[in-house]
Amino acid sequence: GLCAIIEEQLKMNTNDNCLFLFCGRKKDRIKAIYREKDGIVLLYKRLTGSGSYKWPRNQDEVKSLTWKQFEWLMDGLEIEQPKAIRPTEQTT
Fold first, then answer.
1. Which distant-in-sequence residues (6+ apart) come within 8 Å of 21 by Cβ?
2. Domain range summary for the chain, segments of one domain joined by +
3. ∠86-16-25 over CA atoms, to 5°?
4. What end-to-end distance do the CA atoms of the chain give, in Å?
5. What is the pLDDT of residues 46-77, one digit of tens each?
6. Which residues 6+ apart lie within 8 Å of 18 measured at CB?
7. Contact call for residues 45 and 74 (beta carbons, < 8 A)
8. Helix %, strand %, coil % for the chain, to 5?
9. What is the reported pTM?
């Protein structure tokens, strides 16, 4: 189901080295799909209590995440942490 959405609606290949995230209607559950050479990894997380994920409402709000932002998301935090140290641009 979700792999078909990735390939047909998003026009992306599940063989790409990407992690795809999907959120439930109540915004308290996330499914993550990652394709490895010998299979697919499915991660499912449900927040307990009254928490919910802030999730894009349309295609314009969709963005790529860093691994740190993914960790924050899995911890139930906002992906934009105002006090987080931002990586600096390297100049050559």
1. 30, 31, 32, 65, 73
2. 2-74
3. 70
4. 45
5. 888 777 787 777 777 777 888 888 888 888 78
6. 12, 34, 35
7. yes
8. 20, 25, 55
9. 0.64
